Amino acid sequence: MSAPMKDPLDLLDLSSQLDEQERDIQHTVRDFLADRARPQIGEWFEDAHFPRELIPELGKMGLLGMHLQGYGCAGVNATSYGLACLELEAVDSGLRSFVSVQGSLSMFSIWRYGSEEQKQEWLPRLAAGEAVGCFGLTEPDVGSDPGRMRTRAVRDGDDWILNGSKMWITNGGLADVATVWAGTEDGIRGFLVPRGTPGFSTSDIKHKMSLRASVTSELSFDDVRLPASARLPEARGLGAPLSCLNEARFGILFGVVGAARDCLQAALSYADSRIQFGKPISAFQLTQKKFADMAVSLSTSMLLALHLGRLKDAGTIRSEQVSVGKLNNVREALGIARECRTILGGNGISLEYAPLRHANNLESVLTYEGTSEIHTLVVGQALTGQAAYR
Fold first, then answer.
1. Is 264 domain-assigned?
2. Which ranges carry the Acyl-CoA dehydrogenase/oxidase C-terminal domain (predicted)?
3. What is the pTM of this model?
4. At 225, which helix (H) or strand (E)?
């Protein structure tokens, strides 16, 4: 009898597709999390606790805004960033969400659309984990159609007066600065709103059944007065926040592969030790069919992620290609998590085992940064040339 595979991605030897630096980054992140996060993640999930003490450590490792150039950022390639997201989400989606929002939404919005003064003020601190950022786009009544946002910014002399609210904002209750998108007489514009600005408040969302090891908040703006220097000067129109979302979606399509891998590893280990009818359940044909189907799905998702990583590194990736990755990989990861739970039987509902925790988290990942329906229509428009959003 041959030894079981420890990593189901070894089925296609996918690590051979990485260069030495990419493998080193992936292994460094995996080892760090094995020591600092994995032993406590079940407890953090149960207690709805985000480990704030890890933020400076993530910054010291260069994981915050790691794919950006300059301003204290690591400047690694997109594939390396994706692999870091994979390892973060293999522990918990909440950890990957923090890093995604910090780097691909908050920091990227400043890096891409901010003034030099804004970049110098915020990016080095955000990269070091000395400050936390969030990204305010979604509203209580506006999700998939952000062009209908109700948050407004009105000129008052040289200042802006901001009113409105944002909902389901990851890192909101932690953030030292919020990138906030608002309608103006000149269209949608972005603003940097520091914590402590009069009229700006946050309220954390409680009683979540998903992403419990993550801070999710509502942002409220009541006659918030902002100087002209708070506006992101290069952000004009809805395309600006949507480009930031594309950055975050890229991290997701890698990250969920990590969650699926972790589920499959847990189920493989359990099935090898669980004895029924005189033999391990891994020896039964129906169980092996489940494993084979999931391993094929996991491997193809990883191949898709790597391909999109190479396209992004080459500067040729298109938004509909990111939608293909997000749509496919989240859907497949959620299916793997649910199937792995069945292999664990009654034990599968315990936080001692990862699959149901991952499945709960992936229910949120399925929805945020574009629902499956929206990404389906993005792909449909690319194929037909017809926009079917309305």
1. yes
2. 236-383
3. 0.96
4. strand 216-226
| 350 vs 263: CA distance, rounded Å | 13
Domain contains 202 = yes
CA atoms of 119 and 108, how far apart (whole Å): 10
Q: Which residues contact 50 (CB under 8 A, 6 or more apart)?
A: 44, 94, 98, 174, 213, 214, 215
SS3 335: helix
Asked which of 176, 208, 230 is the last residue of a domain, the reply is 230
Range of the domain at 363: 239-384
Residues 216 and 262 placed together within one structural domain of the fold: no
Q: Which are the catalytic amino acids?
A: 369
Q: How far is CA 381 from CA 246, 292, 305, 339, in A?
A: 17, 33, 22, 32
Q: How far is CA 183 from CA 9, 103, 110, 118, 162, in A?
A: 45, 24, 18, 21, 10
Q: Which of 187, 209, 230 is the last residue of a domain?
A: 230
Apex CA 235: angle with CA 232 and CA 240, to 5°? 130
